[in-house]
User: Fold this.
Amino acid sequence: MSLVAEAIAEVDGIDAAALPEALLRSTRPCVLRGLAAQWPMVRVANTSAQDAVAYLKGFARDTAVTVSVAPPQASGRVSYRDDLLGFDFHQEKAPLPMVLDRLLQHVADPAPPTIYVGSTTIDTWLPGFREHNDLGFGALQPLASIWIGNRTRVPAHQDFPDNIACVVAGRRRFTVFPPEQLQNLYIGPLEYTPAGQPVSLVDFAAPDFACYPKFAEALRHAQVAELGPGDAVLIPSMWWHHIEALDPFNVLVNYWWRQSPAWMDTPMNALMLAIMSVRDLPPEQREIWREVFRHYVFDADAHTAAHIPEAARGMLAPIDETRMRELRARLLQRLNR
Assistant:
């Protein structure tokens, strides 16, 4: 993809061992150059892919991981077939050491098959790795995952959690868009997705502007950064991001955390319920429900239920874990009628 885009802002002076709260609550993306540069994994990866593989094997359990594999003609893109009824890759199960060896076999291959291990929990498959390669999140307990592959391209998508992604081997290009670019990114199916999140149908390497004309407007709002080993990028909740791995061997470690309690449901469930129950109402009724949602959800404050005695407010009271469980049980009961 050839574009002239704004560079993602860079922030200096961040202590990797004690990430500041202001950074962890940021609502704007930023590049953190060298944040993970002192990790042993990064130093080893800067020597060679072979050394990086040997280092990872020192922690890897001989347990199968999920591997996405595509033929060379996919050019690394992990997405749909043209008819959107299937994917342009298939998944296999193999022990991580075996996958690493397979990647090394294709390091010098000019047109390798796509080999991609995505979102694999580090503590499960690489126990001990984080004792030497980690960031300081304080009281937060983020989910730490590792992503391993060759020259892969992950279509633009959103994640509900906030995210810090650390490049530890190879180079990656991140292209991010503000959340409001939803209508210009041509998002595919919500429930049938390549990896759990709805993705843009635009091939960033060869955008079809005849088919996706509004993508030109999205590009006006794009921010781009190329990261090398040791660099990191903060991607706030719900920012669209497209990720390209640029070298024959690439490893990324990322951390996801939420600004809300872990027991809260994901808003995607609310979206699906709203599509089921609100979207296809007559226009006049939809407008009524727009006002109901505004009143009880988007503009809710201390005055919304102030006229109801505190003990009788039910779901209009502040939600805690106990009330969440009660509401979930009630909702499941209603859905299963």
